[in-house]
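Subject: for your reference before the review

Hello V.,

The reviewers asked for a structural picture of the protein, and I figured it would be easier to keep everything in one thread rather than splitting it across files. Below is the amino acid sequence we used in the manuscript, unchanged from the supplementary table.
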Amino acid sequence: RTNVTLRRKLPGQRQISVNTSRDENLQTGQVGYTLPDVRYSQTARSLIPSSGSTKSWYNNIQYSYNSNLRSRFDKTPSETDSLGETIAFEESESAGWEHRASLSFTGLKVLKYFRINPSLQGLELWVPRTLEYSLNDSTQQLDSREVSGFRARHTYSGSVNMNTTLYGLWEIPFSPMKVIRHKIDPSIGFSYTPDFGDESFDYYQSFTNANGDVLQGDRFGRDINPFSATPNGESRSLTMSVVNLFQGKILRGEEEKKVDLFRVNMNTSYNFAADSLRLRNLNTSLTAKPVQNFNLSFSSTHSFYRFRDNEAGGKSQIDELVWEDGFELPELTSWRVSAYTNFSLRKTAAREEDEENADSLDQQLPGVSTKQHGRRGIGKF
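And here is what came back from the structure prediction:
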């Protein structure tokens, strides 16, 4: 895999990058190219900047914009000779230009202690060709063909989030750590995404085969689109999260130091538009730094629904909550623990001597820095 990227920062918190990459599977002989891959990003900023020191409510309206032009080429071996050498490839190409924009309102307070943040997100995709589908009478599956011609896809979503902050303090009299502070950031929000698989958007083609199965084909499928497929299915989700931060205040002599002990995050959501399994898994993560240069993290996933054995020998979720027959905790489905550390070697005597010599040379030659501009300094000298 080979990758080359050029980046440049622009005024106004903007950035543009140009990327090209090539990857080859040495076992299968499949080769892929991404050329070009041009990205432009504009971080969130005020839509109507304030002219003075005071801000009005409309100065809190922010926008952001990101654009990505990408073209992808793939070659897959399709025919080999008697020696096993590839003599023919099956080639595919995908290209598109994606535009992402968002509009948000920050700083809106309700009842003094609650913050409300509504936002809108929009995505537009331009492609030079699309896919047309037909039902194959023999296989009862969909066949696709490419149709040249520019077409745009527009998707969007909206959300509103409300959060607040709570604090708790515990004093510890007989310990170097005098106080533990518990900061709680609960948040609740609602998000909505339409069903872009509906016929009114004309992004999908629907067919019913002889078995009565409904088959859908995405006109902007991954065969011609280097970005994500078209969202299919309505979503009306209530999101809930709690961020817990535990901090300590250590007193050593007259020196006071504040440290972050550990952080615990929990989140889940409820999709009102889903046919079943509306309550998403509970995700929990814990990060801690018990000693300097050592970090510990733990994450887990719990299911609110019960599992049943399936015919394949595994387990699958069923639309039955774990507490339907009495109180029961959510079932643990996965967990992960990781730890890492970092360290730096001490300076050797030879390195310290080199730095001292460099410092003395800086004093002898004003305006010439051998540390940061060594080559340039020697050139001037």
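For the response letter, the relevant points are probably these. Helices lie at 349-364, 374-380. The chain is about 5% helix and 60% strand.

Happy to draft the paragraph if you're swamped.

O.
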